[in-house]
Automatic annotation (TrEMBL):
This is Dual-specificity RNA methyltransferase RlmN. It comes from Tahibacter amnicola. Residues 108-344 form the Radical SAM core domain. Its main location: cytoplasm. Pfam families: Radical_SAM, RlmN_N. Its EC number is 2.1.1.192. It comes from the Bacteria. Reaction proceeds by a ping-pong mechanism involving intermediate methylation of a conserved cysteine residue. S-adenosyl-L-methionine binds at G175, E176, S207, S229, L230, H231, N306. SUPFAM superfamilies: Radical SAM enzymes (SSF102114).
Length: 378
């Protein structure tokens, strides 16, 4: 039975999950080793899911011993995991201080998407988001972000370019990724590296609530797809739902999206719009949204709200969502409705973001679960 301290991602030696290829080569250079040695180790980590230097059979024994003494490869620890009846898979991953984050894999006919967290909690206080109810705790390290993908890839038996089961990553889990910029950009670099998870740029998506200066910075440093949590078609309503809008109103946000699209012409921008009954789902809201979408080449993704304990919002009726979509489609705006997945394991969108209204209760549950050795309990 593991003690609680054993489920924490702690290491005194550098953890190789904290480095992208460039950083890993620099680390190996500081150990007097050639760059190709770093590449070899990276391939073992991400293509074969090996974390023990002893198992890296094409690396000489002297180097294996040297690496064992100097560095570590420590993936995050899964507290428990569960699969939904629709094959959606959720991992609860242990962090320090009794905290946990959730990572969800959503398989579909032609792709497999992993939803990854960037922070423990979130400080942006979007009114319809369950993560907001637990406040901000801390940023995740690069290793903790990359580690979520590694845990899922290992479970799925994913091998980049050969046995490709994990095809897309969306940074849409807990947290605002642009507030953890360096770690998120470094982690996304590993996701897109051929020696890492080998995903195409457009298959890695960063979702932001609209931090305008950081969207500009992202466009200079990365080629990933961008998603923007819009959720309202005018400033009055958006400021109520997404308080960050007060600082960066819709006009500024759309201008930054235009700049992103201009600098990264091959990337797509998706606007996410959670459908809240009688709040933002009226025909006039759809018409206002059409006007906004004329300003940026984009796609709208309508997300049926997933209620959580204590929320004042309800999900819009199916018919209302369809008529809202029709207004957008008729006006030529590419609009999809997200299918709700993983409802039976609380992994649906919005619920992923930590149903931790009562953290004390949840942490007590984690400990009890560990004490009983119920790694697969839910
Ligand atoms: S929707 Fe995203 S940015 Fe807003 S509070 Fe939730 S996690 Fe934070």
């Amino acid at each position: 039975m593991p003690a609680l301290r054993d489920v924490l991602v702690t290491t005194v030696k550098p953890n190789l999950f904290d480095f992208d290829r460039k950083g890993l080569r620099e680390l190996f250079a500081s150990l007097g080793e050639k760059p190709y040695r770093a590449d070899q180790v990276m391939k073992w980590m991400y293509h074969r899911h090996v974390t023990d230097f002893g198992g890296m059979t094409d690396v000489g024994k002297a180097l294996r011993d040297k690496l064992s003494a100097a560095v570590d490869i420590v993936p995050p620890k899964t507290l428990f995991e569960k699969q939904s009846s629709d094959a959606t898979h959720k991992w609860l991953i242990g962090m320090d201080g009794g905290n946990a984050i959730e990572t969800v894999f959503i398989p579909e006919a032609t792709r497999g998407t992993l939803c990854v967290s960037s922070q423990v909690g979130c400080g942006l206080n979007c009114q319809f988001c369950s993560t907001a109810t637990q406040g901000f705790n801390r940023n995740l390290s690069t290793a903790e972000i990359v580690g979520q993908v590694w845990v899922a890839a290992k479970h799925l038996g994913n091998v980049p370019h050969h046995q490709r089961k994990l095809t897309n990553v969306v940074m849409m889990g807990m947290g605002e990724p642009l507030l953890n910029f360096d770690n998120v950009v470094r982690a996304m670099s590993v996701m897109r590296d051929d020696l890492g998870f080998g995903l195409a740029n457009k298959r890695v998506t960063l979702s932001t609530a609209g931090l305008v200066p950081m969207i500009d910075r992202l466009s200079e440093e990365s080629d990933v797809s961008l998603a923007v949590s819009l959720h309202a078609p005018n400033d009055e309503l958006r400021t109520e739902l997404v308080p960050l809008n007060k600082k960066y109103p819709i006009a500024e946000l759309l201008a930054s999206c235009q700049r992103y699209a201009a600098r990264r012409p091959r990337t797509s921008i998706t606007f996410e719009y959670t459908m809240l009954k009688d709040v933002n789902d009226k025909p006039e809201h759809a018409r206002q949204l059409v006007k906004l979408m004329r300003k940026v080449p984009s796609k709208v993704n309508l997300i049926p709200f997933n209620p959580f304990t204590g929320t004042r919002f309800e999900r819009s009726d199916e018919a209302v969502i369809r008529s809202f979509q029709k207004i957008l489609l008729d006006a030529g705006v590419l609009t999809t409705v997200r299918r709700t997945r993983g409802d039976d394991i609380d992994a649906a969108c919005g619920q992923l973001k930590g149903q931790v209204l009562d953290r004390t209760r949840r942490q007590a549950e984690f400990r009890r679960s560990l004490e009983k050795g119920q790694a697969d309990a839910a």
